[in-house]
Design brief:
Elements: H1 2-13, H2 16-38, H3 40-47, H4 66-83, H5 87-137, H6 140-143, H7 148-165, H8 169-190, H9 192-212, H10 216-239, H11 241-246, H12 250-302, H13 309-350, E1 371-380, E2 385-395, E3 399-404, H14 410-417, E4 425-430, E5 433-434, H15 440-445, E6 447-450, H16 461-465, H17 474-483, H18 487-490, H19 510-524, E7 528-532, H20 540-554, E8 558-562, H21 566-569, E9 574-579, E10 582-587, H22 589-595, H23 598-605
Parallel strand pairs: 3-8, 3-9, 6-7, 7-8
Antiparallel strand pairs: 1-2, 1-4, 4-5, 9-10
Helix pairs in contact: 2-5, 2-8, 2-13, 3-5, 3-13, 4-5, 5-7, 7-10, 7-13, 8-9, 8-13, 9-12, 9-13, 10-12, 10-13, 12-13, 17-19, 19-20
Subcellular location: Cell membrane
Domain ABC transporter: 372-605
Pfam families: ABC_membrane, ABC_tran
């Protein structure tokens, strides 16, 4: 708990004004909550003719005797009306005091809730923003073994759980305890003997409730983890809906979803059963305490006559004022357990270290002058190396093509040059600067990336194409679309470049989506272009339309092309043939064909998988 609060403090500091006012108004609320029951005594005294007659106005004797002064002054005013035969006016004064006290109590309670609302919403919005920034900044390797749904559950579900439960701790540490303290102070001024009976209730209830709640955090954590799995199933189902339906696999996904949903149901029921015990336990212990108070208090009023009946009624009200916050604390302690489990999952992401963070003295590289050097690198995603002692040089203005069967490590080269991952051995450098010593932002600013999967976002064509150059003019966007041979179909759309592409660009064909992706790279106009099987998703006609655009785009530009079609790479300056992470052949198209080796066989099969 302390650890979570310490982690939240930087977020809370921004809203410290609301913390101060929340505490201030909660203290006033607690004070007037206790005073509200004391204010009933004058009214009860008038009703039962128990008012102490005071004929002389009291004298002020300092702040230490303010209670006696206030009581005497009230009795003096009420006594005057009673002696004048006007008991109704005396009752009006007593009623006004009661109403004023309850009004102030609720007014301060409202102000306290307003400030905790601003605090809670502000902190959790900042927390969500910070978490999103962290999610975006963490390297791709962080997500290679994680479910997207689990990360989504943390930024959405877990932060909501914190909002709904964890921030109730502000009430725990201020309002409810303060209400109990103020009530106890007033109760001890009335009768220390009766007060001891009430005090016995609190530790007994606390012990019972803490024993019941021990497993809550563990169950809450399991439920939140399973919620992440459930979101993953939904996300995967929607992403791959064509495959699910095409393979009649609906029942498999339904079964997975139902299994996960049932697990959450069981865990939630376990949590709910224990949550629901807090109220009844508090209620039963409260009734027992009230019964004991009535028996013992009745003896003090009726037999020993050491306390007035009207005062005893007010005391019972104060007892209730203690039992209610004690019950609230017991219920809130369960919710806090849920919140702590959610907070643990949120801060696990926030505390994750970036294994590829820019070095403090990293270079800002704004130009590309000479060459990209890949020097004797080895790399593995898990246990087995996918690249072993791999070396090539890509000179400025030249095109290097990487070919080979699936799993040979072609796309890994693209990932490493963009520094989505770091090499395990060797180095990659640009103009003699190791990419590890270059800021990631400036490194990636030099590169344009077109991947096999046409990744578009649910936004307009304009915003998708201008992603790498947000300040691009409309004319520049149109020119980029023309170079990518995409303008022909875009201009025929009702809203032109303002047309929304739909979720993942599903409003367009595969070829159209790829041409928009190429237009995005064209508009960015980087000195280095990386094409990771950029034409593999295109049909023959679309490939013909795009091929000219790619050639125009690559002319006088440094390019690394990963391809499986001959048309894409036959004009490359150098073709590197890869097999199981190693270079087996290297040269231009004509040279490799004369070698009668792996490349020639691949060409004859017309497939560089």
């Amino acid at each position: 708990m302390k650890k979570i609060i310490n982690q939240l403090l930087p977020f809370i500091k921004k809203f410290k004004r609301h913390v101060f006012f929340n505490v201030f108004f909660n203290l006033l609320y607690a004070f007037f909550s206790a005073l509200a029951f004391i204010s009933l005594i004058p009214m009860l005294n008038v009703l039962f003719d128990k008012t102490a007659i005071v004929k002389e106005a009291p004298k002020w004797e300092g702040i230490l005797k303010i209670k006696d002064y206030g009581e005497q002054l009230l009795n003096y005013k009420v006594s005057g009306y009673l002696e004048d035969g006007n008991p109704q006016m005396a009752l009006v004064i007593a009623v006004v005091i009661v109403i004023s006290t309850f009004l102030l109590k609720n007014m301060f309670g409202y102000f306290a809730m307003q400030h905790v609302m601003y605090l809670k919403n502000g902190v959790l919005t900042d927390l969500r923003k910070t978490m999103y920034n962290k999610i975006i900044s963490l390297p791709i390797s962080f997500y290679s073994k994680r479910r997207k749904g689990d990360v989504m559950a943390r930024i959405l579900g877990d932060i909501n759980e914190m909002q709904n439960s964890f921030f109730i701790v502000l009430e725990l540490i201020v309002r409810e305890p303060a209400t109990i303290i103020f009530s106890l102070i007033l109760m001890f001024t009335i009768s220390w003997e009766l007060s001891l009976f009430v005090l016995c209730f609190i530790p007994i209830a606390g012990i019972l409730i803490s024993r019941i709640g021990k497993s809550l955090k563990k169950n809450s954590l399991k439920a939140q983890q399973e919620s992440g799995r459930l979101i993953s199933i939904v996300e995967e189902s929607l992403t791959g809906l064509k495959i699910v339906k095409g393979y009649n696999a609906e029942n498999i996904f339904k079964k997975n979803f139902i299994t996960s949903a049932d697990k959450i149901l069981k865990l939630k029921n376990k949590i709910g059963l224990k949550n629901n015990l807090a109220g009844p336990i508090s209620e039963v212990l409260g009734i027992i305490t009230i019964a004991i108070l009535l028996w013992y208090g009745g003896k003090l009023v009726l037999v020993d006559k050491v306390i007035e009946g009207t005062t005893f009624i007010a005391f019972m009200g104060l007892s209730y004022a203690i039992l209610t916050p004690a019950k609230a604390i017991s219920k809130a302690s369960y919710k806090v357990k849920n919140g702590i489990a959610a907070a643990d999952r949120v801060f696990e992401i926030l505390n994750e270290t970036d294994s590829m963070e820019d070095l403090p003295n990293a270079t800002e590289l704004d130009t590309f002058k000479d060459k990209i050097s890949i020097d004797n690198i080895s790399f593995k995603y898990d246990d087995d190396y996918v690249l072993k002692d791999f070396s090539i040089e890509v000179h400025k203005g030249k095109t290097v093509a990487l070919v080979g069967q699936s799993g040979s490590g072609k796309s890994t080269i693209a990932n490493l040059v963009n520094r989505f991952y770091d090499v395990n051995k060797g180095s990659i450098s640009i103009d003699g600067n190791d990419v590890k010593n270059i800021t990631k932002k400036s490194l990636r600013a030099l590169m344009g990336l077109v991947t096999q999967d046409s990744i578009l976002f649910n936004d307009t064509i304009k915003n998708n194409v201008s992603l790498g150059k947000p300040d691009a003019t409309e004319q520049e966007i149109i020119e980029a679309l023309k170079i990518a041979n995409a303008w022909e179909f875009v201009q025929s759309l009702p809203n032109g470049i303002e047309t929304n592409v739909g979720d993942a660009g599903n409003n367009f064909s595969g070829g159209q989506k790829q041409r928009l992706s190429i237009a995005r790279a064209v508009l960015k106009n980087p000195p280095i272009m990386i094409l990771d099987e950029a034409t593999s998703a295109l049909d023959t006609e679309s490939e013909r339309l795009v091929q000219d655009a790619l050639e125009n785009m690559m002319r006088n530009r440094t390019s690394i092309v990963i391809a499986h079609r001959l048309s894409t790479i036959q004009n490359a300056d150098t073709i590197v043939v890869m097999q199981k992470g190693n270079i087996v052949e290297q040269g231009n198209h004509s040279e490799l064909m004369t070698q009668n080796g792996v490349y020639k066989k691949l060409v004859e099969m017309q497939s560089f998988e």
